[in-house]
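lol ok so funny story. i was supposed to be doing the assay writeup but got distracted and ended up predicting the structure for this chain instead. priorities right. anyway since i did it might as well share w the group, maybe its usefull for someone
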Amino acid sequence: MNRFWIAVGAVLLGAAPAAGLCPGTAGATSTALLVGGHGAHAQLTEEEMSTALGGYFARYDTRIGVPFVDTGDYSTKLAVSADALYAAVYDTTGFRTIGGVSEGAPAVSLVLNRLMYDRAHPETGHVAPDPSEMNVAVYGYVSRMMFSAAAAATCLFPSLPTTP
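and the output, tada:
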């Protein structure tokens, strides 16, 4: 059933070629910030990013591969990778899509939660990008079955948050 919804999401994303982008707008830029996955896909190549989701990211001005850092245990990998993606969001201007694949996809959830916190608490000094300046794409979000019962019970599995 999850594969069905992933396929539906990919079709909808591909059917909306200008979704979120502002082509022809003076000075407008678009950047894809994509977290890699397991093994050979920990650091996505330019070709992998350009051809992902049927070439959806090929029309972006810039594609930045954020590495999925192999630091040992999964929760540490997620935290380190989420920190790198979070920093990349604030280092980037213009329209951005943040995304992740496979094992790196849950890092996107962690970043979304942090951005929503920043937006709700401007006193922290971080001004989160306006929701109209961002969108999210994840592919192959990791299954809960990958985690042990203890990990699931301690909330190490980040669910996708509901965003504005």
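The first strand starts at residue 30 and ends at 35. The helical segments are 2-15, 46-55, 74-91, 105-120, 149-153.
back to the writeup now i swear
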